Amino acid sequence: MVNYPISVSLNSVSVKRRGKSVLGPLSLDFKVDGFNIVLGPNGAGKTTFLKVLHGVERVSYGTVKWSIPDAKARQSQAYVFQSPIMLRRSVRQNLAYPLQLVGMDKAEITTRVVEWAQKIGLQDVLDFPAPRLSGGEQQKLALGRALIRTPQVLFLDEPCANLDGRSTREIEELLKNATQAGTHIIMTTHDLGQARRLAGRILFFLNGTLHEQGNASEFFITPSTSAARAFLNGDIIE
Amino acid sequence: MNEIWAGIQEAFWLIIILDSDLIEITVRSLKVSFTALVVASALALPFGTWLAIRRFRYRRVTIAALNALMGLPPVVVGLIVYLLLSRSGPFGVLGLLFTPTAMIVAQVIIITPLIASITHQAMRELWSEYHDLLISLNTSKRQRVAALIWDGRRTLMTAALAGFGRAIGEVGAIMIVGGNIDHATRVLTTAIALETGKGDFALALGLGFVLIALTLVVNLAIHALSRTEREGTW
Amino acid sequence: MIHFIFAVLIVFSTQVQAETMRLAATTSFNNSGLSDVLLPAIRMDTGLDVQLLIVGTGQAIRLGEAGDVDAILVHSKTAEAAFVAAGFGTHRRNIMYNDFVIIGPRSDPAKISEAESAVGAIQLIFEARNSFVSRGDDSGTHKKELALWSAAVLDPRHFGPWYKAVGAGMGASLNSASGLNSYIMADRASWLNFGNKGALELLFSGDPMLFNQYAYIAVNPDKHNHVNIQAARRLEQWLLSARAKSIINNYKINGEACIYLQWHALALYYIKGLI
Fold first, then answer.
1. Residues A107-124: what's their mean pLDDT?
2. CATH of the domain at B224
3. Quick one: which of A202, B63, B134, B164 could link to A219 by a disulfide (CB 3.0–4.6 Å)?
4. With bands split at pLDDT 50, 70 and 90, how would you rate the model's confidence at B206?
5. Mean pLDDT in chain B?
6. Which residue has the higher pLDDT, C162 or C267?
7. What are phi and psi of A115, to 5 degrees?
8. Which of B123, B135, B136 is best to mutate for the A interface (most A CBs within 10 A)?
9. Residues C157 and C227 in one domain
10. Are residues C151 and C224 both part of a single domain?
11. Of C184, C210, C236, which residue sits at a domain end?
12. Shortest CA distance to A131 belongs to which of A121, A141, A123?
């Protein structure tokens, strides 16, 4: 797959929930390329930002426009939710589902499912009910299910929260492989170490808006705003 | 206590000698209630699912009405269906009063709200669980309903079973609209009422045990069916 | 969806067999067991499949008025006369009779077995305030019971809790009386065929006032043109036939004859000087 960048532009986007603003107003032209990590304190609007980009959360105001037609945009994206959503089916059927939706033929589905089950290390539990897997296994399955359609853009919301070191490393491996295979990633995390390990680009959110952005190498060494500096120091920001 | 023992013996004998009347009314009971179940499910399952995933203006009112209808006294349903189907009523020309069809109509009215309500509750839960994922996967409306119905099939089966149990055990409505006519509209429950009326408690109890055994068998059969389909340790 | 439902409905409604007719008959006709011997004979002789609706006289008359049955077999002369007068039936035909009896606890606390007449018997029950179960369902039996109270110049509406109007058929009411060890009025055939007598016993019978006349009325096709008047007429002819007479007169419950074909009955009553 060709690793060409995609861009998205947000035009005065805001999201309100029960009268309270949770995101925006936000205007932004953003070239999605490589590994992007969204940082910021709790309640900064990171998750809402991801959901708005993906289109699973409606904006209260403004527009989100991808460089490809709307109809194809979400089709070519995938999203891994903070707590993995397991279909009440077997591991095999969970992996097959996104492929069945696009009408892929059965033989190819079978090969892909087996291939991805091996990649995520669940080849021995293919017929086990997905909702009964452990947290780490569920997260890996959710990731495999997201990647099986080789999306152009993959959103991840705190994929390693609550996971042990080993599972975290396995997931990070999978994500690195995915970027090499041409998938662009936008991910939120609380783990600064993880952000340092993976990020190509950082988006720092504060109070529902994009406060600072830049290359990871620069951001971690010389953040340009005092809030970002405080955040990196581990101070509480209000 | 003697009566109950006599009832058990009576039930045993009725089954051992395959009493032809017993078989006839049992088959009719099953036929009427299964038909009612099929019709009610065809209405209630899609409606309950639709109610769970669609947001519209009178949704809350509809749900409240549905829950109220669930508690509808069967006798009242029977009376209304009777008045509608009577020769002097609006649908009198159809000549359906005192036929199995009238009993099916009454049972459909009694169990549809029950099945729809259980379906709605189950589907609402499943939908809130699946919502983000199914939107994210860019599913069409049809694909969403299909996924919900397929993954909720065991709950739906339970809903249908609850409906079937209510239908086959119901007596008030079908007595009124069916008339308990021998060889035409007599079913297990109305036969029990009749035998009780004659003071023949042993036979009434015998029929009662047959009814209980029947519902048990149907429940177990459906349970076993859903089990074999479950694949492995599901 | 709608098509499917209609398809199902049609499958069921087209299951019409031989010639059928619907007869609304009083509970005692069935509870006595007489219908079980008559219906097969009717089918054999006339080819008619009589579908029997077992209801109280009040409801039978309503069914006839609505045109939901082809004929009625009931036992309340005033209601029948009104039914025919209003044009719902062509004419009424006396078919058979039996008699009402008063049932009560074996110990007979009100001593009604010593009463001179039916009215005397219920007066004794009233004085003893012993529990009494009434059908309370506007049936022929209920109407007869009310006629007795009124003949005794008593009004059940002012009775205390000892008077229990259960609003049920003959069998269910007998069950209640059996459970409560109460007095109750029933037709003889239902009583003889009743399986849960418990401590109850027949205590009083034989008063001409307790005469119980069953009449057959075909529903008037002028009011409801869909009724099967041919079948109703055929059944009427059969009920008046010698064969019906022999079946009805020979029908015995526990060795006791309890229902008589009409002409025979009238003769009997004339002989006894009861009418």
1. 94
2. 1.10.3720.10
3. A202
4. confident
5. 87
6. C162
7. -60, -45
8. B136
9. no
10. no
11. C210
12. A141
State how many domains chain B has: 1
**Residue C172 near residue B192, CB atoms below 8 Å:** no
What CATH number did the domain enclosing C202 receive? 3.40.190.10
Q: What is the pLDDT of residues C202-225, one digit of tens each?
A: 999 888 888 888 899 999 999 998
Distance from B65 to chain C by nearest Cα, in Å?
22
Nearest to A54 by CA among A177, A173, A188: A188
Range with the lowest mean pLDDT among A65-74, A158-167, B127-136, C1-10?
C1-10
Which residues on neighbouring strands pair with residue C26, listed in sequence order? C55
Instruction: State mean pLDDT over B178-206.
Output: 87
- Residue C6 has what pLDDT? 54
C120 and C85, same domain (yes or no): no
Structure tokens at B227: 């089990």
Is B146 an 8 Å CB contact of chain A?
no
Q: Any CB–CB contact under 8 A between A125 and chain B? A: no
Q: Give yes or no for a contact between C42 and C59, defined as CB atoms under 8 angstroms apart.
A: no
Shortest Cα–Cα distance, B149 to chain C (Å): 18
**Whether residues C65 and C8 fall in one domain:** yes
Distance CA B137, CA B134 (A): 5
pLDDT digits (tens, 9 = 90+) for B55-108: 888 888 999 999 899 888 999 999 999 999 998 889 988 889 999 999 999 999
Residues 47-76 of C with CB under 8 A from B: 49, 51-54, 65-68
Q: Is the peptide bond between C156 and the residue preceding it cis, with omega within 30 degrees of 0?
A: no
Averaged over B164-170, what is the pLDDT? Answer: 91
Name the residue range of residue B220's domain. Answer: 2-233
Residue of B138, B140, B145 to mutate, interface with A, max A Cβ within 10 Å? B138
pLDDT band for position A234 (cuts 50, 70, 90): confident
Judging by beta carbons within 10 Å of its beta carbon (0-12, 13-18, 19+), is residue A198 exposed, middle or buried?
buried
Please identify which residue in the block is written with the tokens 């939107």: B135
Q: Domain total for chain C?
A: 2
Q: Cα–Cα distances in Å, from A126 out to A113, A123, B151?
A: 9, 6, 18
Angle formed by the axes of helices C242-249 and C34-46, nearest 10°: 160
Considering the domain architecture, whether residues C198 and C126 belong to the same structural domain is answered as yes
DSSP string for residues in chain B: -HHHHHHHHHHHHHHHTT-HHHHHHHHHHHHHHHHHHHHHHHHHHHHHHHHHH---TTHHHHHHHHHHHHT--HHHHHHHHHHHHSTTSTTGGG--TTSHHHHHHHHHHHHHHHHHHHHHHHHHHHHHHHHHHHHHTT--HHHHHHHHHHHTHHHHHHHHHHHHHHHHT--HHHHHHHTT-TTTT--HHHHHHHHHHTT-HHHHHHHHHHHHHHHHHHHHHHHHHHHHTT-TT-
Q: How confident is the model at residue B226 (pLDDT cuts 50, 70, 90)?
A: low
Supply the range of the domain harboring residue C186. 99-210
pLDDT digits (tens, 9 = 90+) for C89-143: 999 888 888 889 999 999 999 999 999 999 999 999 999 998 999 998 888 899 9
C-beta of residue C104 within 8 angstroms of C-beta of residue C202: no
**Whether residue C118 sits in one domain with residue C254:** no
Model pLDDT, residue B17: 83
Predicted confidence (pLDDT) per residue in C230-241, tens digit:
999 999 999 988
Helices (H), chain C: 2-13, 27-31, 34-46, 57-66, 77-85, 118-128, 140-151, 170-180, 188-193, 229-239, 242-249, 262-272
**Which domain-ending residue is among C210, C227, C245?**
C210
Q: Are residues C108 and C187 in the same domain?
A: yes
Residue C180 backbone phi and psi in degrees, to 5 = -95, -5
Q: A-chain residues within 8 Å CB-CB of B233?
A: 128-129
- Position B23 pLDDT exceeds 70: yes
- Considering the domain architecture, whether residues C107 and C38 belong to the same structural domain is answered as no
